[in-house]
Amino acid sequence: MRAQFVLSEIGVGLRRNLTMTFAVIVSVALSLALFGGALLMREQVSTMKDYWYDKVNVSIFLCNKNDAATSTKCAKGAVTAQQKDQIEADLKKMDIVETVHHESTDEAYKHYKEQYSDTAIASVITPDQMQESFRVKLDDPEKYKVVATAFAGRDGVESVQDQRGILQNLFDLMNGMNVAALGVMALMLVIALMLIVNTVRVSAFSRRRETGIMRLVGASSFYIQMPFIMEAAFAGLLGGAVACIMLLVGRYFLIDHGIALAEKMQLVNFIGWDAVLSVLPLVLVIGLLMPSLAAFVALRKYLKV
Q1: CA dist., res. 157 & res. 152, Å (int)
Q2: Angle at Cα 137 formed by Cα 135 and Cα 143, nearest 5°?
Q3: Four-residue CA torsion sign, 21, 24, 30, 36
Q4: Do residues 99 and 124 touch, judged by C-beta distance below 8 A?
Q5: What percent of the chain has pLDDT over 90?
Q6: Strands 133-138 and 97-103
Q7: How far is it, in rounded angstroms, from Cα 151 to Cα 159?
Q8: Which of 185, 290, 281 is nearest to 233 (CA)?
Q9: Percent of the residues in the chain that have a pLDDT greater than 70, as a whole number
């Protein structure tokens, strides 16, 4: 009997405040979709870092005859065969070095032509203008400074570059977008909480006579609160479900179909469905608990005898 009464009161409350309940569902859905999207964006950045950092190298560029005239680091002239052998030997002695590959000027020229064949400068570049280099793969890419300290400034070495720096701007941009999404999510969350509180208060005010009678006959505070809390929880759960659908649809159209980023950006290792599915339970739990707690706090003043 009590369960039937609580359920009937929930239905009455939802019908009386249909417009505000709809606004709560929409605001909760948007805020939780942004929250889930921010989590997935962070996971995407982490996945890309793991994927690309495993592939990037430390590049030790050697002096050529052109650098001798333009760079103070190559003032002693182009790198000699003895210097190259010594650099390679010292690299292979380092525990943090996994592999060492020597790229000749011809190989560097070939790679340059493959990457920049459509540019105007590619037609005037010659192999002797390219730099020899050692491509060094480290066991831990974070230990780049060990190599840089050991080889920067050596005779025959023009520069030591960490290829992670090329990717860092992209990761910084994605992290910035993530922070922006979290900021908008926080704003939407505040709006959702305000709507939930106002909805509960309006519902409690419209049923103040019923709650007054329930207090007079000795009903417990929890029993009086339950219909209002469950109304808010139901609206929040619907909002969470809509947010889950938005995340699933967003993953489907952005990566697999529609925009199909997976086809257009094949070098990017995108997050899979397992990452999306792992976020959905958290979104639903927050969608259920957040309105319930907000309703509980909002109702305290209406239950004072």
Answers
A1: 7
A2: 115
A3: negative
A4: no
A5: 6
A6: antiparallel
A7: 9
A8: 290
A9: 74
Q: At what angle do helices 164-206 and 18-53 cross, to 10 degrees?
A: 160
Report CA 185 to chain centroid distance, whole Å: 14
Distance CA 283, CA 252 (A): 18
Report the alpha-carbon distance of residue 31 to residue 40 in Å, rounded.
Answer: 14
By the 8 A CB rule, do 295 and 200 touch? yes
User: Which pLDDT does position 305 carry in this prediction?
Assistant: 42
pLDDT tens-digit series, residues 277-290: 999 999 999 988 88
CA 94 to chain centre: 35
Return d(Cα 287, Cα 109) in angstroms, integer. 57
Cα 264–chain centre separation: 20
The half-sphere exposure of 160 on its side-chain side, counting CA atoms within 13 A, is 18
The residues with which 102 forms a beta bridge, in sequence order, are 134
pTM (2 d.p.): 0.63
- State which amino acid sits at residue 305: V
Catalogue the E-assigned strands of the chain: 58-62, 97-103, 133-138, 157-162
- Reduced to 3 states (helix: H, G, I; strand: E, B; else coil), residue 41 is helix
Q: What φ, ψ does residue 102 adopt, rounded to 5°? A: -90, 125
Q: What are 153's two structure tokens? A: 């400034």
